[in-house]
What does this fold into?
Amino acid sequence: MNWSPSVDIVVPCYNVAHVIEQCVSRLLKQQYDENKIYIYLINDGSTDATGEILDTFLHHQHINIIHHEKNRGLSAARNTGIKSGTGEVIIFLDSDMTVQPNWVSNHLSILRNNDVVGVIGDSQLPQGNKPNELDSYLYDPRRGARRFEEGTPIRFPYFLLNNTSLKRSVFDVIEFFDENIISYGGEDTELAIRLWEAYPDGLRFSFSATCEHHHPRELNDYCNLMYGYGKTNLPSLLEQFPQYKTELGGQWIISIKGYLLFNPIVRFLVSKTRHFCNSYWLSRYLVIDAVIRGARTVYRR
It folds into this structure.
């Protein structure tokens, strides 16, 4: 099929002065018809130099820069980008990521299938960077959609929106991102559930549509974010979608098996062991434990 759609690239930006110029510069070097690519950069109330750096690209005819007066969250920023464009395909990219020249083409090579409405690409550590404990967990081949083969259907828990393409037509069927979700985590899962329910065989994963993620942080910092997700957005997701309690991890929050596995004693043993053994499973436990601890603060009330 000779399919050459117009493409909107939506990049929500918040305090990414250290990498945003590199992110945008890479997007301008895609091996795809430049007259069919439009880039929407949404400055979501940044407090660093992100806005000033974005404005240096104002002269480019294929770049649109939109400034939110205050930080409204990923959902609102992505919705702004969606509504501002008209492209047949929308590709979302987080602003702390960089891509290769074949990135758009690799997304479209899978999305061109009539049965496919969405593709999530892989992410990896920037070349030359030595992985820390968190990196070893985040980029492990056993994590997330990497366990599946290229182009095979995936379910909603594996469909995140950090490096993801969608056919615009899906928004004629489902609503936009939920702008009530402001804090970290869950806004992509909420949309992915509705998307998967409408198109149960329409989501795919791609190893080839990859990006490099420039976000150095430690495991403890990430666990703090996941604790916040468990305390704020996970309970809302479980209330909205009780039929997916198992896939959302809700069965571990206040059940007997949950307290047997996720408790202070096991957490202490895992925390001590990780100092002697850098293990994917130990890191995974601590991340999940953080989410559950956050959720328990709500369900214990």
The longest strand covers residues 203-213. The radius of gyration is 19 Å. Residues 219-299 form one domain.
